[in-house]
Amino acid sequence: MNQLLGFVKKEFTHIFRDSRTMIILFGIPIIQLMLFGYVITTEIKDARIAILDHSNDNVTRELTNKILSSGYFRLEDNLQNEHQIDPIFKKGDVKQVIVYEKDFAQKLEREGKANIQVIADASDPNTAQMLYNYTNGIVQDYTKKKYAGFAIPVQIKSEVRMLYNENMVGAFMYVPGTMALILMLISAMMTSITIAREKEMGTMEILLVSPLKASHIILGKVAPYLLLSIIDAVVVVLLGNMVFGVPIRGSIVVLAFLVVLYITMALSLGILISTVANSQQVALFISGFALMLPTMLLSGFIFPIENMPVPLQILSNLMPPRWFIDALKQVMLKGNGLEYIWPNILILCTMTVFFLALSIKKFRFRLE
Amino acid sequence: MIEVGNIEKSYGKQKALKGISLEVQKGELFGLIGPDGAGKTTLMRILVTLLLPDRGYAKMDGLDVVSDFRKIRTLVGYMPGRFSLYQDLTVEENLQFFATVFGGTIEANYHLIRDIYSQIEPFKNRLAGKLSGGMKQKLALSCSLIHAPKILILDEPTTGVDAVSRKEFWEMLNKLRHKGITILVSTPYMDEANLCDRVALLQNGTILSIDTPKNITAGFSKNLFGVKVETTTQRFECVGLLKEMQGIDSVFSFGESIHITSNQPAIQEIQVTEYLNGRGQQGITVERISASIEDVFMELMQNEGN
């Protein structure tokens, strides 16, 4: 026991003495959360558009006003003819051009039908799609209100309510995702690097030729990072709650249990990596590529799993963060308890046991 | 105390040890002497249970290095060739850590390290990475002694250390031996061989000779001459000339002078001087000298080559 405590103490000294480690431990989580919360947002505000009004009557002017006052768009330019459309897209600032056909108001009155052409810059397809949806919504809304008295044959009206995130705040999605990313970064990457460092510096040779058991070395390496990761998790949850208003609707105990389980899983993954990596570079490379990218791309953090090709969907099942993020959202946003997230817990437990068993099996008591 | 029987070890196709046997008695200061790549580190790593031998056996205090490796790890003190302490911990923290790892305290075995540690104690709050080479070695030795090991295994402890520190280091080893600790030490410096009780000369994974330094040099049967020259250029020229001289077996540059061997009684100092003078080399002195370990080593290596 004393041996283990001595080891943990030494490990903390390493951490507190190395400013880079301290920055990774406490600087990066905060910076990342802020970045994901503020900068990377899928909500669109003030998208620049141009308008080509061939009709310029009261209806088109009214519609234009409505579109521009929605908050989603900002008028960049009023165009005079079709030839200006291509150059203005090429300049790159304008994301959408709205074209009203000739005699718009007249046609609408006589034929009950008039055309608006929406041309969008689909080099960023998601934005283009969203801008189109906004525009369409505004136009529909306008016609509905304006011709409220007219009987439109059989109409189905859908009222949409966004449950659990009424205002569609992006942070609700990014905070759980960031948490998965940060905890993976700190737990897996840092443990794998610190064990690899002992090998690289030659100190592992001395540790091996000592009565320390493999479990002492592993536990001694893991305990400090478990503690620091828990602190990080608390910081992320609190910041998410206070800065971005991400709620914690579920039980704190369940949340804590889930987070500690995930950290343990990431730590055992880190140990597994360190049994393979003999230098800090290799450890960094493996944890960087093998953990960070899948965590970002395949966990449903940024890209919805449902939209992935089937092989990737199957692959995403193997990504521990996928199950963590899903469970975290359920607990924080929906207020679900263990009765809903037990499959996720079970999967994470299985993964942890698997990684631990494999790393104990692969841990070498000798240099070969 | 240490028993090695016909140990073989290969890394891939490279044979590092080709059947090595030796025995070290309790309380002996035993030296493994040999150039880089001779297999010293490999043998030591097998003894401290870090590597598995391909063939043969080794016992430390009667314990097998393969099956009893856990027990061996409690009774052996090991100092690897590379400085392997925590550079970001202070001198005292390092010592404290290793004492705890072995389940002891600094105080319990302070008497063992007092002579050594007292020299670096004034710097106990300095980071280990900021120590000089000699001080690092003293700290490393202290750390490997803090659990009172029965056997001490030191891999090239004096490599890269200044001459004064080297001398001090060997004095410390001598004192430790008198405290009953068995010491196996390796070194590439032949002159350090004389400070050991017994040495094994190692070359290319085989043992050339095992004996006391005195017996090893006494066993040198040929006539050995030292040729002193005036300049470096002259030394090169003389080496070339001597290699062509009839009746000379070997010619080696030894720092400032040249060592030549011959087993023909007809060749004495005067013959060598005349030979060189006759070829335009003036101002040289030739004298008969007694063999050092290095001379023996060169001789053995040459025989091995043939």
What does this entry look like structurally?
The complex is a heterodimer of chains A (368) and B (306). Chain A is an alpha/beta fold and 368 residues long. Chain A folds into two domains: 13-40 and 170-362, no CATH class; 47-146, abc type-2 transporter like domain (abc type-2 transporter like fold), CATH 3.40.1710.10. Helix content of chain A is 66%, strand content 7%. Chain A contains 14 helices and four strands. A four-stranded mixed β-sheet of chain A has the order 2-1-3-4, sandwiched between helices. The two termini of chain A are 28 Å apart. The mean pLDDT of chain A is 84. Chain B is α/β, with parallel strands linked by helices and 306 residues long. Chain B folds into two domains: 2-212, Rossmann fold (3-Layer(aba) Sandwich); 221-289, Alpha-Beta Plaits. In chain B, strands 6-7-8-3-9-10 form a six-stranded mixed β-sheet, with helices on both faces. Chain B has a four-stranded antiparallel β-sheet with strand order 2-1-4-5, with helices on one face. In chain B, α3 (91-101) runs parallel beside α5 and α4 (110-120) packs antiparallel against α5. Chain B is globular and about 70 Å long. Chain B starts with a strand and ends with a helix. The mean pLDDT of chain B is 86. At the A-B interface, α1 and α8 of A face α2 and α3 of B.
